[in-house]
Amino acid sequence: MHGPASPGWLLVALCAATGAYCLLRMRSSDDEQRRAAGGEALMGFGMAVMAVPAAAFTPPEWAWGAYTAVFGAAALHALWAARSGVHHLHHLVGASAMVYMAVVMAAAPAASPGAGGHVHGGAGSPLLTGVLLLYFAGYVLVSGVRLLPAGAAAGGTVAWSDRPELARACRLSMGIGMLAMLLTM
Q1: What is the DSSP letter of 183?
Q2: pLDDT one-digit tens code per residue, 29-56
Q3: Rounded distance, CA 128 to CA 81, Å?
Q4: Alpha-carbon Rg for the chain in angstroms
Q5: Which of the residues 77, 101, 150, 170 has an alpha carbon 20 to 30 A from that of 70?
Q6: Using the 8-state DSSP alphabet, how is residue 111 labeled?
Q7: Using CA atoms, how far apart are residues 178 and 43, in angstroms rounded to an integer?
Q8: Using an 8 Å Cβ cutoff, are 46 and 18 in contact?
Q9: Structural domain span for residue 104
Q10: In whole angstroms, what separates CA 143 from the centre of its chain?
């Protein structure tokens, strides 16, 4: 992504940490939780790699095609999974947004050495970017509200891989990350 280096590295750390926790969630005894965690880990690590500041590393031209293929496949998987529940539609929107950003970055002009590694100028469709920004802003707000305590939790010990509030916090952080990435377009 083409933004300032310090916030870029913070976004990389946030997304990588989220991806790592999602890998931990894949150890859950609940099949549906494991499947969702796998997709969320892919998104977290994919967002982390895509958010590396251009001043630190400029990916080769073929990398954007690889992003498009991987997240295109993830979008198709989410579309197929949406047959069993509408909650998979969010994964479809997220993977599609990653495809969109990869296509835009592939079409963006190469960074000039005097620009500090940043790409300048508008890129992508303002309408599509705006729709995605509105969607993820709404998602972040709803996810934030869902983190508010609803009362006393059920008794007993819950494994780290099965903590619903941590799964919601991961989804919230990825939504915030997606907003940050879309804002740099």
Answers
A1: H
A2: 878 788 888 889 999 999 999 989 888 8
A3: 24
A4: 17
A5: 170
A6: P
A7: 10
A8: no
A9: 5-151+158-183
A10: 14
